[in-house]
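Sequence in, structure out. Go.
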Amino acid sequence: MLLRYKIPSDRVIMKGYVATESVLGILRQASLLVIPSYYEGFGLPAVEAMASGCPVVASNVASLPEICGDAALYVDPYKPHSIAEGMRRMLTDDLFREGFIRRGLRRVQKFNWERSLENHLGVIESLVAHDTVHRPSIRPVSQLQVQA
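Output:
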């Protein structure tokens, strides 16, 4: 695919497993992060990339558009040409790329572990305070009628 779409192979590093302590260092040196996922949980790699000043080319499906907002260039993960074109544009248009870096650094300000914990606790407290779950009444065995 790299040759077909004229992306220099020396510009692409495909990593397997990366130790947690190495992730941010790699992202700080990367030209971009490409996530053409069909399915993605929260999208933490995209958030880590944006926080590191690394622009993101991401799948236009799953959770990534919700997580990245306007801070990622979206591609169709089912179309290799779309992925390659997104990579090419991000690698060759410096002004375009810089805009995504700026928006990414702004976007990650919305993600904060303390705020997330407070939001989750608020939801749990609200559910407990407004317990409207209908629970069937349970009668002791001695009150059950046995039919012959």
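Check: The longest helix spans residues 113-129. Residues 9-123 form a domain with the Rossmann fold fold (CATH 3.40.50.2000).
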